[in-house]
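tool_call predict_complex ligand=iron/sulfur cluster
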Amino acid sequence: MSDTSASEQPTQPEGPGLESSDRPAGAPARKIFIKTYGCQMNVYDSARMADVMAPNGYAEVETPEEADFILLNTCHIREKAAEKVYSELGRLRRLKEERAAKGERLMIGVAGCVAQAEGEEMRRRAPAVDLVVGPQTYHRLPEYVARLDNGSPGIVETEFPVEAKFESLPMAEKRKTLARGATAFLTVQEGCDKFCAFCVVPYTRGGEYSRPVTRLLGEAEALAQAGVREVTLLGQNVNAYHGEDDAGRDTTLGGLIRRLAEIPGLERIRYTTSHPRDMDDELIAAHAEVDKLMPYLHLPVQAGSDRILKAMNRKHTAESYLRLIERIRAARPDIAMSGDFIVGFPGETEEDFQATLDLVSEVKYAQAYSFKYSPRPGTPAATEEDQLAEEVKSERLQRLQALLNEQQLAFNRACAGRVMPVLFDRRGRGDAQLVGRSPYLQSVHVDEAPEELFGRLAEVVIDEGHANSLRGRIVEKAVQTA
Ligand code: 5AD
Ligand code: SF4
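tool_result ok
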């Protein structure tokens, strides 16, 4: 990773005066369509890409057909990611040709982790692509677009000047695109130094970088003022967060959460995704002491066999993971545990897989994600010789998912009869149904919910727990002032 950009001038000026209506008089309004693939980090990045383009006269539109600039914000974490992007680019090439036949110009850009991984190759395989930009330089989008407008034949930018990106983006007050509802993402950390043997993230997103505390407080305050009640702190390895505060002191995620909890109007704080090795005492204490920190923890373990964990370079054992969960549960007994699992890692035996099932049985997850191992080019595990047959992986995944689904249903059913605060952030089916999130991140459906509860918290009595959601009734309206 290069740090040469620390001294670079931001291309995007900060501060007031960046409304889209501030573009030079007479400049035509152009339209950008951003398609987001993959993780929440990409959802956040896409919103910031829209933010950065707005002052340059680009309004966001909902379909590719309306756009002058189509940007695919891609994800590379799992199987066939690059192939999916190439087939989408095939469709877009036809759209571009149709436009060209009418004398119109359509710009096509690819951002995110597939762009980072493919680099120059992307323009060779898909010449219709004008711009390839990795996840670390999208703050320079306006500059790239200006260069394309001025006749540049195509741009590939996959450097890692991570320090410049976030702090070169428009200031928090200008974050209109993210403050659309009661919940918002806030990227606090990016990149990863862990190098799990199966994972592309350290290669596509680069090394760990934490944003300064003051910037994050400013952004969170602006979100709260715009009506956001719940913020989810994002990072590939979010609990490795180590940001500087205004006095230059190192602040951990637990410390950051305590500062964020002081912001009026912000009612709930979540964070994802964490590594077991970085779950420190301060963060565990925050779970015991900070009411606004929600009792839900996504803590991937990946596998239950120590032999496989070692081969995965996970830096923890099954036992150390289980002891860690004991400590977390001692701090916050009702915490809902979530995780990620990979089945069929190279060399995984039936006995190894059984150890994963045993670990799951012991932890009792409220919710989890599970995947078949798929080789990612450039990662150490991809070149291991003892790759497993697809049928074996599929069969193991089915068994694991049956167990995880059983646990999720049991967790949801056990909520029946309880009263819990629900933050309503979606409209459901029918006229008066609202859907919100419980503290444990379950979707809660309420029929006949008063419209004024949209965007707010209310106490709900849970009547039923189902496989993927809860159903309940309002018991008491929370009176809130913004
Ligand atoms: N194959 C399957 N699953 C993977 N993940 C990451 N890389 C791979 C891979 N090569 C899963 C891990 C990770 C989640 C985000 O995606 O479980 O925690
Ligand atoms: Fe990938 Fe997470 Fe491992 Fe980092 S800790 S290498 S992001 S799986």
